[in-house]
């Protein structure tokens, strides 16, 4: 089973100046046959950038995966000394006397103090990284709802909230004060920072760096890879602070390129195809030659079910797209011990399908074929947390469609709807990135997911509303459903989407 996504953000130039940016040549050179790794450089100022790495050992821009196999993939256990990072322990958060009601943590109460108290209650007992991922998931669900309103009810959807948040976090490094505040507010980073007097804006970037350490390791039993690239138009200056911070926090170093040169486009497309195991092909063919800066994030996941579906048990069955339409699709069948829960408030059932390693797919299946709208509207980090806490384990027969989704979105209008407007206008301030006047005009998100018998590959409700799904011994997914892929160590929502018609890509 595999999933892969690519997120691209870019800016157009208003007035070019001279620059001294690393030449693109080294970006696409053939790699040396050495195992890759990180080397700490003690000369970096700890107050500005947490760690810097020697040029030959950086993780993205200087690396091409040609010539390397999965067994050569960086083992991040070797990066940090044991105990040098908060993993399960969280630092203290500010106490607020206002009691936190047991309702949706992200609801919009009139009293800001009550809202803040709810947020702190949700953060209680969680590590800093888990808290940031809770905020990332909230943003992802809101973006999903915005995108859902733009597509047909019969369309499948695929998003990678983690990849989008990483790309936007990287972009915020180059934003001036006002634009930076708008980005942080729209993505929820501002609420996260304000949750503790131990946090500041830099905490967000340090935690995205930490997320790379925690998630993208080979020894968990699955493959999850996140890579960032930054391309800059030749003769455009990029500030030293932006170059240093993108490299230190997001493992990306700005590369000087000619966006009008077909040779660059071909090489960049080949790099993307290599990094995503051939799943995303030629995404940059429509690049504006006047582009001044492009930020890319690629996310690749390959996981194997803990309990594989026997191929001989897969048979074509009816899947109900809506009350009038059925399609015949291959339905996988398995029997084993699975965690599940019933949400009577949202009138849906939830199944957890674990991969090898502490990562799983959650299937949320409305009991009524018309119930998807309510589920989509109400899903939140609070709801998912309650699902996970109220699951019971028992022997069940699982029937799940085999499917493949491939989606490509332009997210500019969705981001505007969520409050991100400055970055797409001349009023946007990117003085932290360059002295040139720039505005973003390109924000693309592309994803692919395949779910089969082997696994997956891919370049507020009260307690009373959740009852153990103890009586159900058969879980048949034969009508539209939501799926979420969660990494449970960090509470990271890596991918999410809906399947309305599994017979369509």
Beta-strand segment tally:
17
Helix content: 10-25%
Any idea what the CATH architecture of the largest domain is? 2-Layer Sandwich
The residue ranges in which pLDDT falls below 50 over 5 or more consecutive positions are: 11-90, 96-100, 459-471
- What is the H level of CATH, i.e. the homologous superfamily of the largest domain? Antithrombin, subunit I, domain 2
- CATH fold field value of the largest domain: Antithrombin, Chain I, domain 2
Supply the CATH class of the largest domain: Alpha Beta
Number of domains: 2
Structural class label: alpha+beta
What is Rg? Answer: 23 Å
- Which sequence of SSEs, written as H and E, runs from N to C? EHHEHHHHEHEHEEEEEHHEEHEEEEEE
Mind describing the biggest β-sheet? 10 strands, mixed
**Mean pLDDT level:** 74
What share of the residues does DSSP label as strand, in percent? 25-35%
Protein name: Serpin domain-containing protein
Organism: Gouania willdenowi
Family: Belongs to the serpin family.
Pfam families: Serpin (PF00079)
Give an account of the 3D structure.
With 505 residues, the chain is of the alpha+beta class. It has two domains: 2-304 and 408-449, Antithrombin, subunit I, domain 2 (Antithrombin, Chain I, domain 2, 2-Layer Sandwich), CATH 3.30.497; 311-404 and 456-499, Alpha-1-antitrypsin, domain 1 (Roll). 25% of the residues lie in helices and 28% in strands. It is built from eleven helices and 17 strands. The chain has helices at 112-123, 128-148, 161-172, 177-187, 189-194, 201-215, 240-250, 262-275, 372-378, 381-389, 412-417; strands at residues 2-13, 157-159, 223-233, 255-257, 291-304, 315-320, 326-343, 348-355, 359-366, 392-401, 403-410, 438-451, 455-458, 466-468, 474-476, 481-487, 492-499. The strands form two sheets. Strands 2, 6, 7, 8, 9, 10, 14, 15, 16 and 17 form a ten-stranded mixed beta sheet that branches. Strands 1, 3, 4, 5, 11, 12 and 13 form a seven-stranded mixed beta sheet that branches. One of its GO terms (molecular function) is serine-type endopeptidase inhibitor activity. This is Serpin domain-containing protein.
């Amino acid at each position: 089973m595999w999933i892969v996504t690519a997120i691209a953000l870019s800016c157009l130039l208003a007035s070019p100046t001279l620059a001294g940016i690393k030449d693109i040549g080294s970006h696409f050179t053939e790699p040396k046959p050495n195992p890759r790794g990180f080397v700490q450089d003690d000369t970096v100022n700890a107050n500005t950038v947490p760690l810097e790495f020697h040029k030959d050992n950086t993780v993205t821009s200087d690396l091409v995966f040609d010539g390397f196999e999965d067994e050569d993939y960086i083992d991040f256990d070797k990066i940090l000394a044991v105990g040098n990072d908060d993993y399960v322990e969280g630092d203290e958060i500010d106490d607020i006397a206002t009691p936190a009601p047991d309702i949706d943590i992200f609801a919009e109460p009139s009293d800001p103090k009550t809202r803040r108290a709810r947020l702190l209650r949700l953060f209680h007992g969680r590590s800093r990284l888990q808290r940031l991922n809770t905020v990332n998931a909230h943003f992802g669900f809101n973006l999903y709802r915005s995108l859902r309103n733009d597509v047909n009810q019969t369309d499948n959807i695929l998003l990678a909230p983690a990849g989008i948040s990483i790309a936007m976090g990287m972009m915020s490094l180059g934003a001036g004060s006002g634009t930076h505040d708008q980005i942080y507010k729209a993505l929820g980073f501002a609420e996260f920072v304000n949750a503790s007097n131990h946090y500041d804006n830099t905490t967000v970037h340090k935690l995205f760096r930490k997320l790379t350490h925690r998630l993208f390791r080979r020894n968990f039993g699955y493959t999850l890879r996140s890579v960032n690239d930054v391309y800059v138009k030749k003769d455009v200056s990029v500030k030293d602070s932006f170059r240093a911070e993108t490299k230190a926090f997001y493992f990306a170093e700005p590369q000087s390129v000619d966006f009008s040169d077909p040779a660059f486009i071909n090489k960049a497309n080949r790099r993307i195809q290599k990094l995503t195991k051939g799943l995303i092909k030629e995404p940059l063919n429509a690049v504006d030659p006047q582009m001044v800066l492009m930020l890319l994030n690629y996310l690749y996941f390959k996981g194997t079910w803990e309990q594989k579906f026997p191929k001989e048990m897969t048979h074509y069955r009816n899947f109900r797209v809506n009350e009038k339409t059925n399609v015949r699709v291959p339905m996988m069948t398995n029997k084993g011990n699975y965690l599940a829960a019933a949400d009577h408030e949202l009138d849906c059932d939830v199944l957890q399908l674990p991969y090898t390693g502490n990562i799983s797919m959650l299937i949320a299946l409305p009991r009524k074929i018309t119930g998807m709208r309510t589920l989509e509207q109400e899903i939140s980090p609070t709801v998912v947390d309650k699902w996970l806490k109220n699951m019971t384990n028992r022997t069940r027969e699982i029937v799940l469609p085999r499917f493949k989704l491939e989606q490509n979105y332009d997210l500019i209008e969705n981001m505007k709807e969520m409050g991100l407007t400055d970055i797409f206008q001349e009023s946007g301030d990117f003085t932290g990135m360059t002295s040139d006047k720039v505005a973003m005009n390109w924000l693309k998100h592309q994803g692919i997911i395949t779910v089969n018998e082997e696994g997956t590959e891919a370049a507020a409700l009260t307690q009373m509303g959740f009852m153990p799904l103890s009586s159900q011994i058969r879980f048949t997914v034969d009508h539209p459903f939501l799926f979420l892929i969660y990494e449970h160590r960090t509470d990271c929502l890596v991918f999410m989407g809906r399947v309305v018609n599994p017979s369509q890509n």
